[in-house]
Amino acid sequence: MAYVINNDCISCGTCIGECPAGAISEGDDIYVIDPDICTDCGTCADVCPSEAIHPA
To answer: Which of 10, 32, 36, 53 could lock 45 by a disulfide, CB 3.0 to 4.6 Å apart?
Structure first.
């Protein structure tokens, strides 16, 4: 099960550099996680300052 980023995302970019799988990219309004690439490690959620990243 992949992690997801909700609308609390402030588009700071902190998560993108922390993802070891490269599953996070910049979306139209917020960052998005590709569920096919996400390894469910949770590193992105640990560094998110707005707590916008949660398990799906």
So the answer is: 53
Strands 53-55 and 31-33: unpaired
| Residue ranges of domains in the chain, CATH in brackets | 3-55 (3.30.70.20)
Note the pTM of the prediction, 2 decimals.
0.92
Q: What is the DSSP letter of 11?
A: -
Lookup: tokens for 15: 């998560």
CB atoms within 10 A of CB 2: 15
Q: What is the DSSP letter of 40?
A: -
What DSSP character marks residue 36? T
